[in-house]
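Researcher: Here's the sequence for the chain we discussed earlier.
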Amino acid sequence: MKLLAIDTATSASSVALGEDDALTAMAVRVDRRGHGGFLIPAIDFCFESAGWKPADIDVVVVDIGPGLYTGLRAGVATAQAIAAAIGAPMVTVTSLTVLAVRAATSRRRIWSVVDIRRGQLATRPFQPVPGGVAPDGNPEVVTPDGLHNLLAGDPQDALLVGDTVALPAGTLRGLHRVKQGRPRYPSADVLLEVATIHTKRDDFVQPENVRPLYMREPDAQINWTDFREEGVWPGGAG
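Model: Thanks. This is the structure I predict for it:
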């Protein structure tokens, strides 16, 4: 099964092609304002590198956020357009999940953080499980002080991943159980990993039903009913 993955939720835009469990081609650029200009040339580059045509794609995968409003809009719209044009189903994954999957550790509870601007952060905890991670709480929108309080109230050793560089100085002061780690940004190659699990469960979405998860007003109203529990990734079933 051949997949196209698009991730533009953060300052790092990426596109990847994969077949089954293998990464075939990838392009990445870090530019918080250049999502739209990056996408089409990056997609063309990946297809040329792989020797594939758009019609070869079986599934289109997209990071639906949370993240930057303009980036999400560009990525989701592009993924929808391609999927609709070639008649392919879609898989949607959240940026918080992508961060946690790449950061999976053997023991620390993982807190994924995405900077959604205007002094707000999107975060969600994940618990390491055999072969992957599982959500261990609800996604929240918090201030840096709110993030500090969440971490201070967590009795477990924690691994904080995501755009922690953007946190104000002192946000993590006194949090001796918290370790900062990688990745900083979600990435399309991890989207492929997660999507492979979804495809095995026939967990698809039609292009017209895909919506970005902004999680910040006034860009959009938060609707938790649209936030799907994605189970355990990769290497397990939720």
